[in-house]
Prior knowledge:
This protein is of the alpha/beta class. It has helices spanning 16-24, 44-61, 75-87, 101-110, 226-231, 241-257, 259-279, 308-317, 342-359; strands spanning 5-6, 67-72, 93-98, 115-121, 145-148, 150-151, 156-157, 169-172, 189-193, 204-209, 284-285, 297-302, 320-321, 332-335.
Amino acid sequence: MKRSFNFSAGPAALPLEVLQEAAAELYDYGGTGMSVMEISHRSDEFVDIARRAEADVRDLLAISDDYAVLFLQGGATAQFAAVPLNLLGGKRSADHVDTGAWAKKAIEEAQRYCKANVVASSKATKYDRVPPRAEWKLDPDAAYVHIIGNETIGGVEYNEVPDVGGVPLVSDMSSTLLSRPIDVSRYGAIYAGAQKNIGPAGLVLVIVRRDLLGRARADTPSVMNWTLNAENESMYNTPATYSWYIAGLVFRWIKRQGGLVEMERRNRTKAQKLYRAIDSSNFYHCPVVERDRSLMNVTFTLADEAFDKAFVAGAEAAGMYNLKGHRSVGGMRASIYNAVPEAAVDALIDYMAAFEAEHR
Length: 360
Ligand code: PMP
């Protein structure tokens, strides 16, 4: 069996153990003689899979009963619309912090439903940081404050939860959720597309404080209505059953590894090594200020972008895939999610040193 070192930003590497478990019961789930893909979402077997996955993710993130946990579809992009639709209530505006490509997408979508105020932006410094909290011009009357917990493309992450007073804080945690422990109680709502640390694409996790439910706009599509989905245990319509099942296997894998404390330990080890390798060279450069660097998506450029193609090709020849940066920013990006082993990062660092020696 070939297993490559996969640095993809998403869909991304999954733990081998999880894939093996899924393979072992692909044709016959729990003696049913049917695949999880082939059974009803209303069956006892699937309802058990669904509830167990929810219980495990609640356990991992220490999510209290004050929050609903939803397993929805449409990716994080659907939530760019679902957030205003569900949270505006009677209000007309929401505050947004602009940290890069995903913040921009969220702002553009929110603007279809309300006035999306950009209360701070790091655009002037090419999105190399999270704008310092002291510079945010928050509106106490806004329905919520929206942030991107980790900019997957830019590699910029909030390493502290910003204090936004009494206004609910909403974070797109697509590429950071489950990488380390977080304090869910600081947020009104969190959402995350699954295809990074959670499981396969096709699923988006929404964690919302229950007191924020019940205020969806009347014209909210039912599949995007958090309240309706909370009332129906995310089975208002047919959910993404197989993705939900794999997510459940991933949650159990994380628990077996030692939970989010252990994930953070491993992830910090990987990220620190890689950033150190970049910073200690004059050939590679990380464009993000140290304080706001992402634990999951390490972005870097080469001394001359003319080397980019050869760098990517050489990496692939050495078994390392998906290092090319997003087409909108160029350069390189190594996404080092939970399932990416330290050995992958070690191999990358060795390759980077060899490439530098050859091209300096
Ligand atoms: N937000 C962030 C932070 C992302 O990284 C992505 C996708 N990589 C999205 C939103 C969009 O997610 P999706 O493609 O699942 O809609």
